[in-house]
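Researcher: Next sequence.
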Amino acid sequence: MDAKRVTRRDFMGDSVKMAVGAAACLGAAGGPSVRAAGAPAVDTSKILNYNPNMEYRRLGKTGLMVSTIGLGGHSRSNVQQRKEVVARCLEAGINFIDSTGGGELHRDLEALGPNRDKVYLALSETGSEPRNPDYRTATKLLETLENSLKRVNLEYTDLWRITVYEPGGRHTFNTCCEVMDALEKAKKQGKARYIGIASHDRRWFKMMIEQFPQLEVILFPFTTMTKAAPTDSLFEAMKQCDVGAFGIKPFGGGSLFEGAAEERDRRARLAIRYILQTNTVLPIPGMNSVAQVDNVAKAVMERRKLDVKEQAELQDAAREMWANLPPHYQWLRNWEYV
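Model: Next structure:
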């Protein structure tokens, strides 16, 4: 597989130019948008895999213009199904794919084929990162990244996002420093264009982005029940530190869905519209079929603000989602207030 369409020198040069040109503290994933009314003019020719029917937002201090919908890594699809899903994502203008684990990365690269350069690819090896006590040093974490890249014949990943223990606050501050050391070294060595972390612990996130301004991207749960905390909200810290954010589990791990296919699709679109209108994160649902890709792409084109009837409908669906959460997803309740 030849995925080296851009040399390491090329992208490092581009990254420096982008970093110089990016305005500071424009506000997390809610920065300038191609389609938002009153937003600064954006040169769409510079947007990766641009489609006029998709919306794109600035991903914090990375300066990247990323599609408001990304493709999450976890899915039940096989290689052929993933190829179909990825192909439809590309047609829809989606330009971000998150891969967690070597099997997913290999599958996604095979699905992309010659189109690797049309997306920003994120990588995480959860089993060989700080969740595992043997991988809590910068040396071991860098070995993880190097091994992952070698297995799929890549020189670099666009985003290396290290996944930490849940809740992340269980880590010592020393481990936090080791994580950051690994991320910074990977970026300096040209093995990661941008760096970030993923966790299920809101307070730990806030500490990390305030203590380590080098952090560029975070990934955390964001469902239809998620809203800003009345005080000490993570969103304010994200804005002040200009950190981009992706929202995982937008459908509550599938617990949002009930009823016939038409009703499930409608709930999915309401959820996407709700998340996007908060102007805080870019949702990355795991999509298993072309129909699901078409449905979320449709949501992007629909009226963003929910009317009173739609708000009530989504609230009812969200309460059902909360009631239907299986035991292994009960931790999502910790993300009602962010």
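Model: The mean pLDDT is 88. The chain has one domain: 8-331.
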